[in-house]
Write a structure and sequence with these properties.
ATP-binding, 7 helices, Ser/Thr_Kinases-Pseudokinases, alpha+beta, Protein kinase domain-containing protein, Transferase(Phosphotransferase), domain 1, five-stranded antiparallel beta sheet, globular
């Protein structure tokens, strides 16, 4: 043993409050709210953490299940296979191409303009589906859009979302978060915050980078607060992104229709 290595205790004890989650399948991800695994049949299962430091993860998954039940099936949603209201586990269809963020980071040079426009349109469509049912996602970002076998986009992860004006248990990442000098804990989320984040998702889709990807988060926040945003002179859908970032977009439907017109003009 190296002299600077700590001694290994003879016995290892877990806190009485610690709950070990029994593995149900192949590990996929460890999210803020839940452990995500792939079952032997190919489906995905989400199991809530039992950790008070992470907040009420069970309640977050209950919220997500209620949102799926409210929305029903839709092409822009991952299919909910089962909700176990006793164990509070959620079983869903598997998305073979992973998150939009992962896919673009790995394949950006091979992604066509038409596929970029398709994803932008589908992202707006998915978010509009939530907004039409009085749901604010509150963590819009490329990590929360998934791609199926046909590379069609699905919006996902509603565990921290706001329903009927309720407070959210999450907020967007810094490059997707609208500036708000009056923000305080418990302040209800607003529609324009989802739209701001969607503008940053569009930017990521068309450029392959998050806004100000080369800056530290504090610098990004300062830029946003000063009304400074990345140059859009050579970025597709720059007018739509500008509406989002300047918080002048009226609705997700407005953004969807603008992108849809561009898709039609390009015979998509």
């Amino acid at each position: 043993m190296a002299v600077d290595e700590p001694p290994v205790p003879d016995e290892f004890f877990l806190s009485p409050e610690t709950r070990i989650i029994q593995a149900k399948g192949e590990f996929v991800a460890a999210g803020i709210t839940s452990l995500v695994e792939r079952l032997p049949n190919g489906d995905i299962i989400k199991t809530p953490w039992d950790d008070s430091a992470r907040g009420d993860c069970v309640q977050d998954l209950i919220t997500e299940a209620k949102i799926y039940q409210r929305l029903g099936e839709h092409p822009r949603l991952v299919k909910l296979r089962n909700w176990d209201s006793v164990q509070h586990t959620m079983t869903m269809e598997y998305m073979p191409h992973g998150t939009l963020q992962q896919y673009i980071e790995n394949h950006y040079k091979d992604i066509s303009r038409s596929l970029q426009l398709q994803w932008a349109r589908q992202a707006a469509e998915g978010l509009q589906l939530l907004h039409a049912s009085d749901i604010l996602h509150c963590d819009v970002g490329p990590h929360n859009f998934l791609l199926d076998a046909s590379l069609d986009l699905k919006i996902a992860d509603f565990s921290g979302s706001s329903v009927n004006g309720s407070c959210a248990s999450v907020c967007p990442r810094s490059r997707y978060r609208a500036p708000d000098p009056d923000w305080c804990p418990g302040k209800p989320p607003r529609l324009r915050e989802d739209l701001f984040a969607l503008g940053s998702v569009f930017y990521f889709i068309f450029t392959g980078n998050a806004p100000f990807h080369d800056l530290e988060e504090d610098d990004v926040e300062r830029n946003y607060e000063a009304g400074i945003f990345p140059d859009l002179s050579e970025v597709l859908c720059s007018d739509v992104i500008t509406l989002c970032w300047q918080q002048r977009a009226g609705s997700t439907q407005q953004l969807y229709e603008t992108i849809e017109r561009l898709c039609v003009s390009e015979n998509m």
